[in-house]
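Lab meeting, item 3. Inverse folding demo.
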């Protein structure tokens, strides 16, 4: 996926969502057809055998079937329904201490064996340019194992008619509450992945993810001015149960937010009302202010200012040509004293949290997934590393965060779920704002900008409310805040407890050349930051 397409998809603003369609278009019924397990083992064995015979000292084979369903609507019309399947085999090897990779869409032992031979030939050809041999952290083979996303209801099993009916109800709720335009989408994913390696692992995984992006726009017909409020759902590693609107999973407040169940119709109604309010809401007065950030907003700030700068390949300069480097350099980590944030700040990585997008049993190197610290009591303590990086930071094993977005993409280090621990003491949002004299409460993610070292940044949002003398007052507009990563996280002065902890996420974390995407979640509770520079985005320069 090229960068323009990525940006189109990630910015689901006005108009319809651009579909990241890959593979062949299939009938909806084919989404439920099972894969042949015996064939997967046969293909894997053919690849491993051929790789070793050609001179590989290590090899892994990934047999992948990637299924997607898109149901796209605008106003009271269905714009598109697409079901896709992409199937193939990728073979990765080490020969002459160098990586090689090749892939094939032909599901025959002969084709996979040929791909393995090609991968070895590529590794041998690249070896003349290798300056340092590949050094893999050890992995003990696990034999035959399987893992499946713990869903209650497979979203692919729900009839398309039911999905259309729900989106029509969503759009009607928005239009009847003042929206001029609305688009809503179901985007459903099923990754069926089989991994085998010369370490002795044969891992079968069935991964499910769901998302329902929505955009609601209100127009002032007299002035032509318009404002948009996007939905407050997040993609989740769940099944259809996420869309059932369980009242117990609602978070009340200035607007309803959601934990592990989403009421899309309710959110559409609120979005329409709030988009209308945006048209007349007063513009923010800039200055140094206290920010109280809801998880629906803070997740993106975590992603950009913590997740990316602590990717070890970025720290080492592997991403410099395309995506930049990181301010969080190895020398800072080596001191064991670098103050990434205040002592309240504990940031961790994980690939195991239930319902998260990153939750899998094993990564694409056959490493069992886990949880580990990145920042503890404000101090930088670790990065995100895979098998061929672990020795660089004195780790004895991979963190289990290696991933490829397709069978025809080579796996490499990707961001796991990166999250902020909730506060240890009981603290509600009302408690948090009780002593705030001049602040802003921000809900939902908006525009963002961050430099190539993931240091200086600017973030917007969806909804902004003024805080005056300990109370949330009126809705305001044109808000963005500016800071740098270290200054921002060191200004953290309070974090709500685990009762407020929620997940946010993205299907489209882009990285690498050629570019790949991955799905990742970020958890946190509502968090306060003091004396942050707020600007007015409606200001005119000059």
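The presenter then showed the designed sequence:
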């Amino acid at each position: 996926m090229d960068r323009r397409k990525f940006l189109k998809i990630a910015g689901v603003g006005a108009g319809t969502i651009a579909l990241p369609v890959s593979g062949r278009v299939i009938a909806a019924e084919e989404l439920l057809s099972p894969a042949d397990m015996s064939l997967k083992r046969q293909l894997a064995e053919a690849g491993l055998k051929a790789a070793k015979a050609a001179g590989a000292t290590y090899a892994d084979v990934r047999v992948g079937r990637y299924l997607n369903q898109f149901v796209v609507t605008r106003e009271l019309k269905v714009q598109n329904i697409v079901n896709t399947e992409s199937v193939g085999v990728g073979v990765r090897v080490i020969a002459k201490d160098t990586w090689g990779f090749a892939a094939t869409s032909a599901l025959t032992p002969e084709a996979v064996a040929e791909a393995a031979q090609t991968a070895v030939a590529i590794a041998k050809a690249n070896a003349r340019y290798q300056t340092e041999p590949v050094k893999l952290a050890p992995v003990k083979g696990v034999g035959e194992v399987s893992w499946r996303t713990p869903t209650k209801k497979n979203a692919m099993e729900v009839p398309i008619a039911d999905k259309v009916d729900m989106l029509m109800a969503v759009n009607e709720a928005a239009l009847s509450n003042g929206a001029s335009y609305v688009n809503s989408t179901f985007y459903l994913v099923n990754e069926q992945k089989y991994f085998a390696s010369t370490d002795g692992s044969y891992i079968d995984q069935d991964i499910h993810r769901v998302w329902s992006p929505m955009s609601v726009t209100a127009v002032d017909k007299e002035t032509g001015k318009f404002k948009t409020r996007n939905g407050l759902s997040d993609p989740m590693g769940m099944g259809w149960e996420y869309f059932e609107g369980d009242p117990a999973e609602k978070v009340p407040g200035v607007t309803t937010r959601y934990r592990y169940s989403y009421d899309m119709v309710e959110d559409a109604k609120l979005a329409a009302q709030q988009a209308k309010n945006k048209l007349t809401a007063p513009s923010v007065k800039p200055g140094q202010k206290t920010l109280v950030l809801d998880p629906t907003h803070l997740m993106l700030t975590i992603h950009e200012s913590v997740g990316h700068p602590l990717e070890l390949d970025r720290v080492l300069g592997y991403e410099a040509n395309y995506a930049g480097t990181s301010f969080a350099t190895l020398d800072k980590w080596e001191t064991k004293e670098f103050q990434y944030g205040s002592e309240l700040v504990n940031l961790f990585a994980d690939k195991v949290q239930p319902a998260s997008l990153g939750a899998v049993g094993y990564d694409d190197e056959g490493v069992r997934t886990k949880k580990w610290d990145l920042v503890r009591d404000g101090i930088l303590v670790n990065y995100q590393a895979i098998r061929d990086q672990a020795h660089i930071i004195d780790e004895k094993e991979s963190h289990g965060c290696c991933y490829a977005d397709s069978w025809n993409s080579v796996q490499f280090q990707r961001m796991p779920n990166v999250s902020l621990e909730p506060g240890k003491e009981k603290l509600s949002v009302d408690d948090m704002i009780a002593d705030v004299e001049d602040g802003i409460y921000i809900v939902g993610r908006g525009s963002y900008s961050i430099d190539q070292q993931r240091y200086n940044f600017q973030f917007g949002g969806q909804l902004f409310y003024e805080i005056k003398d300990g109370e949330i007052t009126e809705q305001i507009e044109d808000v963005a805040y500016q800071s740098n990563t270290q200054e921002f996280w060191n200004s953290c002065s309070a974090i709500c407890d685990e009762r407020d902890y929620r997940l946010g996420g993205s299907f489209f974390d882009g990285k690498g050349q050629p570019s790949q995407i991955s799905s990742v979640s970020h958890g946190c509770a509502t968090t306060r930051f003091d004396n942050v520079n707020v600007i007015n985005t409606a200001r005119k320069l000059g």
